[in-house]
Design goal:
- Keywords: Aminotransferase, Cell cycle, Cell division, Pyridoxal phosphate, Transferase.
- This is DegT/DnrJ/EryC1/StrS family aminotransferase.
- One of its GO terms (molecular function) is transaminase activity.
- With 384 residues, the protein is of the alpha/beta class.
- The chain has two domains: 239 residues, Type I PLP-dependent aspartate aminotransferase-like (Major domain) (Aspartate Aminotransferase, domain 2); 121 residues, Aspartate Aminotransferase, domain 1.
- It is built from 13 helices and twelve strands.
- The strands form three sheets. A seven-stranded mixed beta sheet has the order 1-9-8-5-4-2-3, sandwiched between helices. The chain has a three-stranded antiparallel beta sheet with strand order 7-6-10, with no helix packed on it.
- α3 runs parallel beside α9 and α6 packs parallel to α7.
- The radius of gyration is 21 Å and the shape is globular.
């Protein structure tokens, strides 16, 4: 690691929500004002309009909006009746929300390793994890493949394994909404899909928000019931255990405006990622996108040899270039989850990645001069 060069240039945003806000300008103001005028802050008309447009975008029959990506995951498991004694298979290299919802319903998360190139669930490790679950007396119930950092998991392989083992497939596309697999949008695979509209996501609102996608007509009324305190014919009849999981109308109004420019932003993200790859491929391991997939580049994540990452982060910080590490601790090593089962090989790829990955600034408003500054700082820090 070479010494860094300190600069007085303004810090670069890691994710530039301000740039997007400036682009949308009065459109957001007018959308929010319409809600403030009609005052239907819960279940207003914008919520229904958003659900219709989200379903059309994803190629799914139904979209059910909700209060967060975590609640989207939980609603699906609750609607399916996943329960104590059931095993739900989750990648070990992901954000905690994917596994967090499994104990909510009393079930057991079983952790699966990931692939070293795409960072997504390893189908062979999933097979091993299913055997582990059976040996421990658990009922294999569902699998939650995650579209990490913006690209879909290997859905061809995972769907086949799920079919062979009678597993429900809950696709977690919180980071991958807008990406494609074999030409189909995420949100149109498996038994149901959950996504997040957290502000930092490629399609984000101005608070928390999420959605469920499914083609299962029978699942929709159950999901809506779960979302509204388990209500039956009205809100004062409760036929199941539920939650308060609604998306508020102001967030729906914001998302409608952002959805209108989403495809343009995906293209801009992809162009920035390609530029990074071309400029950094000789100094670090740059991201790999499966040829069957496209990515929305929720994060741009490189790999470095062990012991290099922290020095790079410090050097970049001195130059006003922010970085982030997703994820320093794999799920099966987290204190709250370490007692749960894992595929039988110790999940070596997840453990290795946790010490090697670092993410650089990535968003749709990353112009060439700013990106050149990031690239130059990375190359200086790595002595190239």
């Amino acid at each position: 690691m070479t010494s860094h060069v300190t600069t007085k240039a303004a810090p670069i945003p890691f994710i530039d929500i301000v740039g997007q806000r400036a682009r949308l300008g009065s459109r957001i103001d007018e959308a929010v004002t319409r809600v403030l005028t009609h005052c239907r802050f819960v279940n207003g008309p914008e919520v229904t309009e958003l659900e219709t447009k989200l379903a059309a975008f994803a190629g799914a029959k139904h979209a059910i909006s909700c209060s967060s990506g975590t609640d989207a995951l939980a609603m699906i498991l609750m609607a399916w009746g996943v329960k104590a004694g059931d095993a739900v298979f989750c990648p070990a290299f992901t954000f905690c929300a994917t596994a967090e919802v499994v104990p909510y319903v009393g079930a057991t998360p079983v952790f699966v390793d990931v692939l070293p190139d795409t960072f997504n669930m390893d189908p062979e490790s999933l097979k091993a994890a299913i055997l582990v679950a059976k040996r421990e007396g658990l009922n294999p119930s569902a699998v939650i493949p995650v579209d990490l950092f913006g690209q879909p998991a290997d859905l061809d392989a995972i769907l086949a394994i799920a079919a062979e083992n009678g597993l429900k497939v809950l696709c977690d596309t919180a980071q991958g909404f807008g990406a494609t697999w074999n030409g189909r949008q995420t949100g149109s695979f498996g038994d149901a899909t959950a996504t997040s509209f957290f502000p930092a996501k490629p399609l984000g609102c101005y608070g928390d928000g999420g959605a469920v996608f499914t083609d299962d007509d029978d699942l929709v009324p159950v999901l809506k019931s779960v979302r509204e305190h388990g209500q039956g014919v009205d809100k004062y009849e409760n036929v199941r255990i539920g939650m308060t999981g609604r998306l508020d109308t102001i967030q729906a109004a914001v998302l409608l405006e952002k959805l209108a420019i989403f495809e343009e932003e995906i293209a801009a993200r992809d162009a920035a990622a390609r530029r990074y790859n071309a400029a950094l491929g000789d100094v670090c391991t740059v991201p790999v996108v499966d040829p069957r997939a496209t990515s929305v580049w929720a994060q741009y994540t490189i790999k470095l040899p062990h012991g290099v990452r922290d020095g790079l982060a410090a050097a970049l910080q001195a130059e006003g270039v922010p970085t982030a590490v997703y994820y320093r601790i794999p799920m099966h090593r987290q204190p709250a989850y370490a007692h749960y089962p894992a595929a039988g090989n110790g999940l070596p790829v997840s453990e290795q990645l946790s010490g090697e990955v670092i993410s650089l600034p990535m968003h749709a408003y990353l112009d060439a001069p700013t990106q050149d500054r990031v690239i130059a700082a990375v190359r200086r820090a790595l002595g190239k």
